[in-house]
Amino acid sequence: QHGHSEAVVTEAQQRHADVFSLEGKLALITGGGTGIGLAIAQCMAEAGATVVITGRREAVLQEAVATIGESAEYVVNDVTDLSAIDALVAEVEASYGPLDILVNNAGINLKKPALEVTDEDFSRILHTNLHSVFALTRACASRMMARQQGVILMISSMAAYYGIDRVVAYAASKSAVEGMVKVLASEFSGQGVRVNAIAPGFIETAMSRTAMNSDPDRRDRAMRRTPMGKFGQPNDIGHAAVFLSSDAARYITGASLPVDGGNSIGF
Ligand code: NDP
User: Fold this and answer.
1) Which family does it belong to (predicted)?
2) Residue from 58, 75, 108 whose mutation best tests the ligand 1 pocket (most atoms within 8 A of CB)
3) Which of 47, 165, 210, 254 could lock onto 185 through a cystine, CB 3.0 to 4.6 A?
C-alpha cells in the first residue's frame, strides 16, 4: 500500500466527505461579490454547491463569478428594495432551480459616536442589516418549507454581544438578527428549515485591513481582545458556513456560532 501515489478513497473517507458535502445544492448569498460573502461563495462552490451571489455593483459581481468559476452565477440586486425581493427569489429559482441555502451576508456598518448618529443613519443601517434580512428570509423560507428542506444563515457579528464603541446602529441591527434567528428556528423547525447565525470577530477583508492599518491604536486594541493573537480570514467564515449548511449540522438550529479567535471567551 505504502508508496502508491494513486488516490484511493476509502469508504470511511467517502462517508466523511459526503456528510460535509454541498453537492447538488443551490445557495443564494447576498453581498457575495466581496469580503466574507465572496469567501462563503468560494467555500460553498468548493463543497459542490452552485452559488448565486448578489450585490449592487455588476462589475464586482462579474469579477467574483470569474474567480469562483463555473458553478457561480450572479444577480444584480439591492436588498433594501423590498418590493423586488419576491421577484429576485422567483428569478433565481426559475433560472437555477430550487434554493437549498440562503446566506444573509450583505451588511453595512457606520462608525460614529451614538450622539452623532442621525435618524437617517439609524434607519439606513437597520433597513439594510435587519428589515431586508427578514424580508428575504420570509420569501425564501416559504418556498423552502413547502419543500420541507432548507438552510438559512445570518452573518451576524460579535458586535451583537459586546459593547463596541461607535457602532450603536450596527450593534442594534445585529442583536436583532440574533433574536430573529431563535424565533425563526422555532417556527420553521417542524418544516425542515434550519436557521443559524455566524458571529464573526475581527475578519481581515480588504476594507477592514485598510481601516485597521490607518488606525494603529484600533488595531492594537482589537488584537489585545483576541486571545488567538491574530485576525480571522474570510475563509474561516466560509468553512463555518459550509459546515452549518451541510448534513453534518442537521441537528443544529437556532444557534449562533462565534468564529472569532476567542473574542467571546471574555476577560
Ligand atoms: P464588505 O463591505 O466587503 O461586504 C458587504 C457586501 O454586501 C458587499 O459585497 C456589498 O456589495 C454588499 N451590499 C451592501 N449593501 C447592499 C445592498 N443594499 N444590497 C445588496 N448588497 C449589498 O464587508 P464584509 O465582507 O466584511 O461584511 C460581510 C458581512 O459580514 C456583513 O454583514 C458584516 O456586518 C459582517 N461582519 C464582518 C466583519 C469583519 O470583520 N469584516 C465582522 C463581523 C461581521 P455592493 O456594495 O456592491 O452592493
Assistant:
1) Belongs to the short-chain dehydrogenases/reductases (SDR) family.
2) 108
3) 254
Ligand 1 atom closest to residue 128's alpha carbon, by position in its atom list? 18
pLDDT of 2 strictly over 60: no
d(CA 140, CA 12): 35
Query: Rounded to 10 degrees, what is the CA torsion of 247, 249, 250, 255?
Result: -150
Q: Cell match 428570509: residue?
A: 137
Q: Average pLDDT in the 221-238 region?
A: 96
Residue 24: pLDDT over 70: yes
Pocket lining: 258 vs ligand 1, CB cutoff 6 Å: no
Closest atom of ligand 1 relative to the 202 alpha carbon: 40
Catalytic residue among 74, 96, 161, 170: 170
| Complete domains list, the chain, with CATH | 11-256 (3.40.50.720)
ipTM summary value = 0.99
User: Using a 6 Å cutoff on CB, does residue 31 contact ligand 1?
Assistant: yes
Task: Check if 170 is active-site.
Answer: yes
Residue 234 amino acid letter? P
**CB 171, CB 160: distance < 8 Å:** yes
Beta bridge partners of 150: 193
State how far the Cα of 76 lies from the Cα of 58, in Å rounded to an integer.
6
Q: What CA–CA distance (Å, rounded) separates 165 from 123?
A: 19
Q: Residues 134-161: pLDDT tens digits?
A: 999 999 999 999 999 999 999 999 999 9
Grid coordinates belonging to 66: 470569474
